[in-house]
């Protein structure tokens, strides 16, 4: 998964202008909210979250492991970008 830097939003900006976050999710499918220049929150479309949670007999930990594994490259890239910005 490639990271579109246009889908990154600071927590301050998200607090001031949540409609911007909603537009990003509508346009790009997700928005990443940064806290202290590190990815902290992901906002997804509700339908996408339902797809992830609809797997029977799967608890939240299994779902989170699957989502993290699916997007591992994106999280690694975000971590690299964070270390470069320090």
Any overview of this molecule?
The protein has 86 residues and is of the alpha+beta class. It has one domain: YefM-like domain (YefM-like fold), CATH 3.40.1620.10. The protein has helices spanning 11-16, 18-28, 46-53, 60-70, 72-84, and strands spanning 8-10, 30-35, 38-44. The chain has a three-stranded mixed β-sheet with strand order 1-2-3. A hairpin with a 2-residue loop joins strand 2 (30-35) and strand 3 (38-44). The model has no long low-confidence stretch (mean pLDDT 82).
How are the elements arranged and paired?
Layout: E1 8-10, H1 11-16, H2 18-28, E2 30-35, E3 38-44, H3 46-53, H4 60-70, H5 72-84
Biggest sheet, in brief? 3 strands, mixed
- Mean of the pLDDT scores? 82
Q: Give helix and strand order, one letter per element, not per position.
A: EHHEEHHH
Please name the fourth-level CATH homologous superfamily.
YefM-like domain
Whole-number count of domains: 1
In whole angstroms, the N-to-C terminal distance is 24 Å
Question: What CATH first level would be assigned?
Answer: Alpha Beta
Radius of gyration: 14 Å
| Reported CATH architecture | 3-Layer(aba) Sandwich
Give the % helix.
Answer: 55-70%
What proportion of the residues form beta strands (DSSP E)? 15-25%
- Poorly predicted regions: none
What's the count of strands?
3
Describe the oligomeric state of these chains in a short phrase. single chain
CATH fold label? YefM-like fold
The count of helical stretches stands at: 5
């Amino acid at each position: 998964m490639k990271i579109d830097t246009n889908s990154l939003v600071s927590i301050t900006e998200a607090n001031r202008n949540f409609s911007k976050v909603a537009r990003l999710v509508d346009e790009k499918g997700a928005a990443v909210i940064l806290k202290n220049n590190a990815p902290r929150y992901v906002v997804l479309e509700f339908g996408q979250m339902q797809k992830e949670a609809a797997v029977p007999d799967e608890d939240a930990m299994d779902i989170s492991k699957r989502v993290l594994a699916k997007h591992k490259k994106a999280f690694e890239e975000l971590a690299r970008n964070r270390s470069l910005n320090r």
